[in-house]
Amino acid sequence: MHYRSREVVQVRSAYDCDVLVIGGGIVGLSTAYAVTRAAPGTRVTVLEKEQGPARHQTGRNSGVIHSGVYYRPGSLKARYAVRGAAEMVKFCAEYDIPHAVTGKLIVATEKAELPRLHALVQRGRENGIPVRELGPAQIIEAEPDVRGLAAIHVGTTGVCDYGAVARQLGEASGADIRYGADVVRIDRRPDLGAAVRTADGTIVRGRVLVNCAGLHCDETARLAGDDPEMRIVPFRGEYFTLARPELVRGLVYPVPDPAFPFLGVHLTRGIDGSVHVGPNAVPALAREGYGWGVVRPRELGATLSWPGSWRIARRHWRYGAGELRRSVSKAAFTEAVRRLLPAVTPDDLLPAAAGVRAQAVLRDGTLVDDFLIKEGPRTVHVLNAPSPAATASLPIGREVARRALAALAAS
User: Fold this and answer.
1) Nearest-10 crossing angle of helices 26-38, 393-410
2) Band of pLDDT at residue 244, cut at 50, 70 and 90
3) To which H or E segment does residue 125 belong?
4) pTM attached to this predicted model
5) In angstroms, rounded to a whole number, what is the distance separating the alpha carbons of residues 27 and 71?
6) Of 34, 35, 113, 148, which is most buried by a Cβ count within 10 Å?
7) What is the pLDDT of residue 183?
8) Measured between alpha carbons, how far is 406 from 355 in angstroms, rounded to an integer?
9) What are phi and psi of 74, to 5 degrees?
10) CA–CA separation, 83 vs 99, rounded Å?
């Protein structure tokens, strides 16, 4: 018995940290921040395979602070986006990070969209969001170059620099953040914790493991020995920059199709004054496939071998065909933009950096609509955190931290 006790003490002394986070995007860094805020003195290490934070979903989105108007009342997305939007504005103000609360218009351009627009009004009110209905003349008053049959104005939407937010979260957390640390193996033992090996051979040991690996979260869960019961199917979002930014004052969105988690091609005036146009949503040929020329056969094979991928294709091929058309044809993309902004021409659209959405898909082809967080022994997995995860990152981080600290206390 004495020998066994001494052995346990020796193993515990070998831990590099209490909470080991994989992934240095905004959710991983928010989790580190939340852990050290809730339990000062807790040792946190973050492993990020890139040479800096927020290089993928966080740093490649349009920078919108979402209001939460779209999301099902009571869902994590609705609750965390509404709460997170207010907290994000406060966080940016506290740390002097560029941001602005601009409000946005959601515009119906066809009669068939009017019932969906009215449903958004009701959903916004159920979520506690101030929503104001506008007619055609009021649309022109708010956005002189935008045309529509009706619109709603959502006052709590804004924009910020999420890359700067992620960097500040990491700095304020006090965590040991290691860049260039690509995780290749995980040895997770329920009675001990997790030992992680990175590509350069470094071993990092933690009492509790948190998986915030974004585009690679399902693979990371399997490395840890857990079945995530989903797969990440990557969708590329392609953007343009508007050559005549004076055509748009703020944020202008179409009425989204409720069958999909994508919001459609929209117009976003960022904090730097430029206007982003997009994104569409096309299948990516790699987890980090930011262009058609980026193909990773192993990752593509994993997507194609997942039954849910084929079920999505069969179920939504018409929608997908339209997105593909807009990807390969600038004229088709311009046509989609002209529904909202008739004055735009193909010459007004200048290519900009694309992003990739890490979309969780179930075996039956269901697109996971809400945030998805699961637990294993001494492990917390964030398995679906696409938009509005950046907006909701502070509440998400607290929830993940709560679960990680509970696992730590039970160990």
Assistant:
1) 50
2) very high
3) helix 114-126
4) 0.93
5) 19
6) 35
7) 98
8) 34
9) 90, -15
10) 17
